[in-house]
Design a protein that fits this description.
Layout lengths: L10 H41 L3 E5 L7 E5 L4 H35 L2 H10 L2 H5 L3 H14 L17 H34 L4 H23 L1 H12 L20 H33 L5
Antiparallel strand pairs: 1-2
Amino acid sequence: IICSAAVPGETDDFETAVDGRQNHFFQRCGSVTKSCMRMVVIWYNVHSRIRSSFLTCSIVSQDWGLIQYKPEPARKGRHRGKRMAKRGKNILIGLAAAVTAVCIAITAVVLFKPLYYYDIEKLNIPETSGVSAEACRENFDILIDYNRIGGPDRLEFKDFGMSREGRIHFEEVKEIFLATQWIGIFGTVFAAAMIAKRRDFGWMRAAAAESAILCVIVLAAAAADWNKTFAMVHAIFFRNDYWLFNPATDPIIKILPDAYFLHCGILIILLAAVINILLELIYRKKRKQYGRNHI
């Protein structure tokens, strides 16, 4: 309350003085109030930044400085680290998927008996081996059934004998083919589960690229020199030379010409390419469905 003595004849000056003092008083109050609010905002801003680097204070009101909280963008280094970790994870999962694709292709071609039936006539195996076409099919079926899951434990051909080295080699081949089949089965189940339950599909493009690179390398090597490539593959998977059969002691080799294995290799590469195309198509479909945040 502002008190002052009224002087006769000076009423207008008195009222003007009172109004001026009131305006000055309220201006001072408003200035102090705004200063206090600014100090509070500054203090809270500093306190929040010290407490957490992910929060920031921003003044959104021009009147009294209301405070709004919003997440602070992560640092570029942290984003880059997450992207690199995600990319590395996709490469590793993609490599496993590429191995699975190759194993599926190998299993499908090895168990595809009509390919050999076709080569019996195409390669004139009965004429070159002296074995009838029917005997070729029967003994080949015994060999394939021996190498599949659930096949017999001991290999016995109907029309051919076998050396000790030959039997050891076929046992080693069976171990490789069984591992290939199990990898194909478990890999397919794992990939299907990831496609069904997850939204991170970058591994599919990585798998397609890695499998394609592997197929191109093998195809180029086979085209350059098939015999050397065939020997190199055996040197990688076997620690002995028992795969070099003697027709006198292991006559089964007479009905298994190198051209048949060449046809198997070509078909494996083609089937792996088909799997790569399917992975790429699924990847593009999922990217279109979920957007780029999940690729």
